[in-house]
Amino acid sequence: MSKLTHRRTKKVSKFEKIKDVALKMNENEKRKSDAKKKEKQKKPKGYRARKAGVVTFWVMLVLMFLIVVVNSGGGKKQTEAMVLNEPTTSKAVSTEAVEFSKDFLSKYFTWNLDKLDQNDRDATLSYFVSKDIVDQIGRITGKTWHSTLKRDAVLLKEAQDLGDNKSILTYQVNITYDKTLAAIEKEKSALGENGEDTYSVENLSPDSMDVVVNEQGIVKRITKKKFVTIHLYYDADQNRFVIYQIPSFTYFEDTPNTSGPEMETDNLRTVVGNETNAVKDFLNTFFEAYANDSSEKLSYLFDDERRQSGLNKTMEFVTVKNVTVYEGRNEKEKVVSATVIFAEPDTGIEYSSNYQIVVAEKQDRFVVKHLNSKKYIDDMLNDAEQTADKTDVDSSEDNKKGDEVEKEQEEQSTEE
């Protein structure tokens, strides 16, 4: 075979191989295409819709998550804004306003005639009052009495909010007046001439509280109870308080208080008879130990994990009186209200104290479960109330069932 013929044969064989590969690739593509068509034909109806629904669900879920995250951050700011915008107590009746007024009154009703400098007094009061009343408010006309008003002798009686950052604050002030030495000497001279008091204590006005007289019967110190009204304004621009009118006197009628809250023991059932005697005897033992014994000894009388400490001999036990015994949670428990008399050790002055004690029987003796525990008594009353409500419901259901049975019996009797 010639070289030319050999080359041609070799080229033909390569061409055939390429052709076979191309045919096989074409057949593979055709088979894949047929397989996809068959797979599509096998898929149930609505498959695409379900697939689209799944995609939509996840998209919506992601969007909701993003909305929650955004709102969480914004919600915090919104909450803070709401707190800041909440209506607050007027500054004109705030604690700061009350304290400011007390400072003013203590200085307004305090002066010493022997050391009085009117300019200094005006300068002191000018810090508290508006400019137009400074020249009037600090004038002292009397020449007989020094005056002192301690800050703790100023008591707020009434606060009236006028709006527009204004208020009227009414105080009780207990002012102490001390007579000048010159005035006392003048009265002594008058006593020497006629031998009689020039100022009788019996003639003092009803607002007089503490009165001190010297050996000649001359009043040298007197404490007066007055009621004073302050007109106050809060200047928001200057961020300060100002008294814009001269204080005026008023009066409050001091009458006995007839009101009071309901006591925790008011809704408990009282125990009477011999049961109370043992409880009373235990209270005398307990409170004597409560006044004198250490915490270790008291632990024997306390059924309480906290092991309450006693008075550590700071008061002396005298007696227990006005004992009222109430039912507790069960037959072994009692709630006791009692007045206990203690004496101050060094002076012997007696004081009355009221205690509410939860006493329980434990191993043939009494122990104190709680001392002045309002929460325990409230919880006990709430439990009793819930039990009573449940009993009423059960009773109502039983009555209803009884009525139904009775009605059925009547219907059967009628049919017969």
Automatic annotation (TrEMBL):
Region (Disordered): 23-45, 385-416
Keyword Membrane in record: yes
Keyword field: Membrane, Transmembrane, Transmembrane helix
Residues spanning the membrane: 52-70
Listed name of the protein: Conjugal transfer protein
InterPro entries: TcpC (IPR024735), TcpC_C (IPR035628)
Compositionally biased tracts (Acidic residues): 405-416
One Pfam family of this chain: TpcC
Basic residues bias locations: 33-45
Signal sequence residues: none
UniProt xrefs under CDD domains: TcpC_C
UniProt feature, compositional bias: Basic and acidic residues: 23-32, 387-404
Transmembrane found in the keyword field: yes
